Amino acid sequence: FNELPADSGYFSRARYFLGTILAESGDLEESLAEFESVVEAQGSGSSSVLQLAQLALGRVHYELGNYQEAVDAYQALPSDSPYFAEQLYELVWTYIKQQDWTSALRHVDIFLIAYPEHRYSLQMKLNQGHLNMKASAFEKALAAYERVAGEKQSGRATAAQVSEVKRLIEEAET
Q: What is the pLDDT of residue 127?
């Protein structure tokens, strides 16, 4: 991976894979440098690799506790990216870590409008209820939990999720 010159058509891919290997082995700081080199090389790889590198930058910054840098990296991903759903999902968790309930809720709403049938949509609906609880918007939280409980009938919610929602509804009502 280190042998490829920056003008090689494989440079970005090689750096992305090297960054992935470093991150997987726990060397997060070194992986950041590799993912940044992919982003800086913008013209030497496919847009898919560059977008994956942006996501990776966000993820590594998140793991390092650099939440603002994670937000910046995630937001650099274009909205027409095939990875935009993952970006929104991960942004929500980044805002939650920062206890920025308003931004987290805003991104949950965007996610649910853009991706109502996505595999993360049920989790995002639960997050909507939790975040409204954190923001002391109890009626909105209750409505969100009731929507999730209603999905049990459609077969989309698991029994554990429905039990959790019922517990939260009871908690909100007391």
A: 92
